[in-house]
Amino acid sequence: MRNRVNAYDVAKLAGVSQSTVSRVLNNYSHVKKSTREKVLVAIKELGFTPDEIARSLASKKTHTIGLIVGDISNPFYAETAHYILREAREYDYDVIIVDTDTDDSNFDRSIQTLIGKRVDGIIIASVRKTNQKVSELIQRDFPLIFYNRKIDDDGQANFVVIDNELGAKMAVNHLIQLNHQRIAYISGPCTYSTFNDRFLGYKSALEENGINYDESLVYQDELSYEKVLEFSLKLMRDQDRPTSFFASTDHIALAVMDAAAQNGFHIPYNISIIGFDDIDIASSPYIGLSTISQQKKKMASLVLKELISIIDNKSDELIQITLEPELLIRKTTGINVQIRSNG
Amino acid sequence: MRNRVNAYDVAKLAGVSQSTVSRVLNNYSHVKKSTREKVLVAIKELGFTPDEIARSLASKKTHTIGLIVGDISNPFYAETAHYILREAREYDYDVIIVDTDTDDSNFDRSIQTLIGKRVDGIIIASVRKTNQKVSELIQRDFPLIFYNRKIDDDGQANFVVIDNELGAKMAVNHLIQLNHQRIAYISGPCTYSTFNDRFLGYKSALEENGINYDESLVYQDELSYEKVLEFSLKLMRDQDRPTSFFASTDHIALAVMDAAAQNGFHIPYNISIIGFDDIDIASSPYIGLSTISQQKKKMASLVLKELISIIDNKSDELIQITLEPELLIRKTTGINVQIRSNG
DNA sequence: TTGTATGCGTTATCAC
DNA sequence: GTGATAACGCATACAA
Hints:
CATH architecture of the largest domain in chain A: 3-Layer(aba) Sandwich
Helix content of chain A: 40-55%
Radius of gyration of chain A: 26 Å
Distance between the termini of chain A: 81 Å
Number of domains of chain A: 3
Strand order of the largest sheet of chain A: 2-1-3-4-5-11
Largest interface: A-B, 56 and 56 residues
CATH class of the largest domain in chain A: Alpha Beta
Order of helices and strands of chain A: HHHHEHEHEHEEHEHEHEHEEHEE
Structural class of chain A: alpha/beta
CATH superfamily of the largest domain in chain A: Response regulator
Oligomer: homodimer
Shape of chain A: elongated
Number of helices of chain A: 12
Largest sheet of chain A: 6 strands, parallel
Number of strands of chain A: 12
CATH topology of the largest domain in chain A: Rossmann fold
């Protein structure tokens, strides 16, 4: 590759100094119109593109943010990333996406590399409730915001979330109103705040409706397709099987739907299923998954806007925004007509 | 944020020069064991993280690559990105993902910013067959590789693709073997090489089987869910409706499935549908979409490996790899039992 | 309004 | 083996 053109080359051609080129590049006000134009012509002529690396080193701003997701192939994260990338484009920020593959050691390493790359700020869309590295960053006042996540000492942390507990309650209440009593709950581990909050919502909805909590109906482990499928199938084949499932993510609701299909169940006649997230495919008529909407688009645009305002130091108030979830009733939830043999 | 610790601070604490710190950081061989350890201790003590920006400026390597996708919320791109991110982690590369939102001006801008950011190389997973900026980069020998794409003057370009024409032929032949004659084709515009090649495959499969090409069964336009849904519904309500659909991406096959569902058709009894890509959800038993596999995982790991070898200049041969597609028969394609009123 | 000089935090090339 | 010192390509304070 041939040597790059730099600001000195432009300066020489335009007959000015390198600092003037810099001033033109940065739209400084006190540049004579004629010299500005000379410079612009030279830039065009040489096809000059400023070196953002050098720029970053000098200005201590990279115009890049880091986005940490659990697994970008998971539609929830993918759709989130899409909206965040779109917003970032508007604000002229680039995004380094780090996919932790839901692995804790990857997470720590990700933070490390993002800090090394001197990103201006970080959006965390996936992390356990407690994490040493993250706490350190918060302590250091590093521009950081959580997307649909909290950590334990969130007194100091910025976040944009929806009310996950309320959302879960809405889902479970919906099932209860449809006459369901035995409601399974499929979720990831409570070490993640979202799952924790949704679990709280699940339990309190049951309690408020006088339904006993039955541990055997609850899965709270690794969210792999296979494991969830297996657990769901086992439950469905049970004598006293649940008549409905609340899956704490749409992604995993699909696994439950698979289990139902494999078991010859017709949704929603034999079994009702409700998810959480409202990923794009949930709204497809072919799937028609009832779910709780996360308002991804709104959350994404908010989280980016707020992060940038933090970076720009427009305010040093804490950003803590909680949005309302929304119940979306589609075709996977229906009235329970199961005849139960209560002894 | 408090001032960063730099290599000079470390040097002072360790009682050595900054260059020695640099040598330790870069694992140089000729450093005395005892001094190396002194430095390492100092690094740990101060919590020093080298500034990758400064490093990049000095070394002219950013250890960052750019990935250009059309729309990261599209599962095909999301899954691709996932595998690429995973591989990149192995090679210690970071990835700036740019989402063009399938907009040409965004694409050009993306190239510009990636070049500005001095990425070491670029993977392009979405671009039209001809693009000025891309051609320029290729001319300049910039490390660049196409993922499942080609451009017109690909004599000079690196790529990893599957044989899209063959894949399309396999899909259509499968339908023909199931006794389908009227086969609709839903696709994006031919200005993209993948769509172009798949269209060629579609046509030649028809031709080889003595079936006339019927333009009215073909959609080649913007791949929005709504538009495809509308077109498919219209076709399905036609007197002489197609008995099967070949959708050039799984993502859009779902829209066709929706249309079928909305029309009260049962898949595959009333209508057969086959996609292309094999996105994760296609294999879900609940969907069970017959499709052509792209070997995303293999392609992704190949494309990254090859790009890095290009960056490292291990060879200046052209990388042009074509993988074999694979037909995956699931439950959305079946024998055509339609009774046709042939005049 | 413009130029000069310095610094940003490294790597790399010399010396010793 | 190790330490000065010059790049790297810009932004910016200061001077003019």
